[in-house]
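ugh finaly. both done.
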Amino acid sequence: MISRRHLVLAAICSTSMAQQPATPAPKKDPFANFSSALDKRPGGTPSAPASAPAVATAGSGAGISLAPHWDALTAQSRGGQSGKIDDLVFLLSAYGTPGADTAAHPEATVYEGPQMDGTGTCKIAYLTPLEEAKKALFNRAPGPVSGSKAVAPGFPDGLFLYQFDIKCGVYNRLTIVTDSAKPQPQVVSLQFKNERQSWHPTHFKEVARDWHTYDYVNARNRGQPGIVIHTRVNDLRKPSHYIVANMAFGIPPQTGGWVQVNSRPNETSTWFLPEPLIGLILFSATNQQAK
């Protein structure tokens, strides 16, 4: 995965960044029945799952575990990350308010959709223990994976990333974001990636802005001005208390459903973000933004 990303970034520096026209929409929607978060259209209803989902529930109820003094007003300075932080605050401000709320929030969902092997569906609650979430997502343990600290600007200190290669819909990469709880970290967010194609959900609500960031979890931004990033959101706060944000390159036609666009670079990030984490990120990001 990393090598492909490096090649894309190298291409940004050396190639004209004119966006290419959209390819015709496929005859069969590649996201049909993927989940209510992705295939629901305005005025429509998602398809019912074929069987009951595997449900991964929250752990001890003690709340999210973050680094000591994560909420101190002496948060890290913005440094050279001001564009990412400004994008993050702009994106999330419509869906939450800043707050140092570390409570358990058992009502909040992180993800609802297919298992990664396509055998069924699953639902992951906010603060589900990582191992329980992996069993529900993969139907079988995918093997040991080392976590790395989340260093994306604007995120509260004490989050970690676990990366997996997958084949699910058009996605080839999954990142599970957890807190610092021991002995079992707890899941707070998921992000799916397609590292080779740009897919736009034109039935999501567009958030208009000259965006710099196309991957907030891994802190990736465009290499130079003039590259077009579209950001769209599916607001599922009622009743599931989460949103889905999609970031992709290029300019799609204004048609319903998922549209693939040929552009340079090509990449899609689809981020599942529960309400409690939105408030925590806004709290940290606005502190950093004020520095």
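ok and the 2nd:
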Amino acid sequence: MNDHYITADLDLWEAWIEFDPLSPSAFGTLHVIGEVMVGRGDHPFIIKCPCNDTDDLVLIVGSMTSRTPCRTTEVMFSEPVAGPNPYRCVRIYHADQLISRIPCIEVLV
């Protein structure tokens, strides 16, 4: 994947883990949230890319337009995690373009 940032589509991206002391099967939940520019009628989503060759979480933002963007919308990804350090960093792509890299995932206890 290409590691050039799409700065026009980047506004704000955050990643954090919420510790859940009552969960019997997970340490907590990882949340990744951000804003993307989209065209009228677009409904973007985030999917996890299965990458076995890295300790990074790779996410793909889908359904962003190639037309002229006219609004900003928020997208979110969440998953249960087994420990406080499940990934080295989070990389978010649109197609093969890197739109954000989050090097540090904060743990909220």
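summary for the 2nd one i guess: DSSP finds no helices and nine strands in the chain.
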